[in-house]
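Let us work through a complete example step by step.
Step 1: write down the sequence.
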Amino acid sequence: MNCPICSWSPDNTDYLFISETQYWRICLAPNQSMLGRCVIHLKRHAGDLADLSEDELLDFLNVVKRVEMIIKSAFSATMFNWSCYMNLSYQENPPNPHIHWWVVPRYDHAVRFGERVFEDSCFGNPYDHDRWLNLPKDLRDEIAEKIKGTHA
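Step 2: predict the structure and record it as tokens.
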């Protein structure tokens, strides 16, 4: 069964590589309606959080701390929403989930990046999952480079 996360490659133009650890890979998500939105996925195929090893969990905790510090430093994010839904995997029969986390920076203020202003109109409430912002590839590259180059 084909897993799009397992078949991800560093030249992916939708999910732009930012960094990785021994167990996790961090990529900039295509939807930048919340500036700096990323996906963190497990580098091996596993479909249930209960399948994570202790080392993978500890490494994930370090990823959380590092990603939050870097995005706060890069874009002055106020706080973060983290989610691990995997619901779409269960629309297939048989399901083939792969553990991945969405990190969604939230902002209580407008953020200017390049010529664009990003605003979190739902701050203080759940964000709108249907809100989508397609940016030109060169701007998404700049966002990814800003994250890569930021040292918290």
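Step 3: interpret the result. The CA atoms of residues 16 and 28 lie 5 Å apart.
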